[in-house]
Amino acid sequence: MAANASLLDQLMGATRNALPGDNVKRKHWSDENVCKYYLCGFCPSELFTNTRSDVGPCDKVHDPELKKMYEECKERNTRGYEERFLNYLEDIINQLDKRIERGYTRLKRSASAKAEKMIGNVEESVRQKINDLTATVNESLAQIEELGAQGMVDEAQSLMAQVEELEKEKNSYTTRTGSRVIAGFEAADDFHVKMEVCDVCGSFLVIGDTQSRVDSHLLGKQHLGFARIRSTIVEIKKNREERRKQIREEYLKKRESREAEKSSREAEKSKRRDSRVSRSSRSRFVSLLCTYIKPMNFTIATDQKLQITLNTT
């Protein structure tokens, strides 16, 4: 029901049931019942519907109009929605990567178990045959000793030829056992090689499978969903780094501008201070000059530039 309501909200708007003239409160993207993951890109609950990774329907509002308003708002980066969205996606991928690691471990254990089973079956059957041949050889050797003691050389030699044939057969079984043991390990290796785990979604795949099955997997909802999550994480981190770089550049530009303005103000202050000192020095000089010239009946006239003019009286 929640999924159907969310779909109707997206198609017809959240106020679809309002009557003409009703005083409907306009929704805002910051409302508590609005899905913030949807605003930042997509809601993960929509990616895996009817798959084994289905997390259930989202009970919050998914409204394209609110999403558009959010994307156009300048203060959206100050709300922290994108950071929470990134943390949630990274948590999903971290759990998935652990499942992929368990899948590889499961393949190795399955291969080892199959090899041990094959080797055990070979050893049991061949061991019994070798034991029977060994008992027959021992009995024949005892008979050869008795025939030799009785002087029956021809019979002993004939029986000895049979013992040699039994020894050859026994050795052949031993060699065959070693070959089958090696074959068991090779079969286990083949089992391990033929199976692999998808590094994107964690599904088990058969190496060398038909192209149609490979395409079916790559276009499946679960594979595409996890691929989108992984690419979104990379994109968000890239955009975040670009924003941080832009902020640093703007900060450096403002700091350089402030330092340039400060240097300009200090230079202007220094210029005015030097001008005041110069004027003060000239005033003191004129005052001192008047002190010595007055007894000599000279008058002094100064203009605004403190240029001194001596007039005789």
How much helix is in the residues?
55-70%
Q: Which parts are unreliable, with pLDDT below 50 for 5 consecutive residues or more? A: 302-308
Sheet-strand content, in percent, reads 5-15%
What is the ordering of alpha helices and beta strands?
A: HHHHHEEHHEE
Integer average pLDDT: 75
Q: What is the end-to-end distance? A: 114 Å
In short:
The protein has 313 residues and is mostly helical.
Polypeptide structure, described:
Helices cover 69% and strands 5% of the residues. The protein is mostly helical. The radius of gyration is 48 Å and the shape is elongated. Residues 302-308 have low confidence and may be disordered.
Q: Which features characterize this protein?
A:
313 residues; mainly alpha; two-stranded antiparallel sheet; 7 helices; 4 strands; elongated
Show the helix and strand layout.
Layout: H1 2-12, H2 36-40, H3 64-72, H4 81-149, H5 153-194, E1 195-197, E2 204-206, H6 211-218, H7 221-293, E3 298-302, E4 308-312
Antiparallel strand pairs: 1-2, 3-4
Helix pairs in contact: 4-5, 4-7
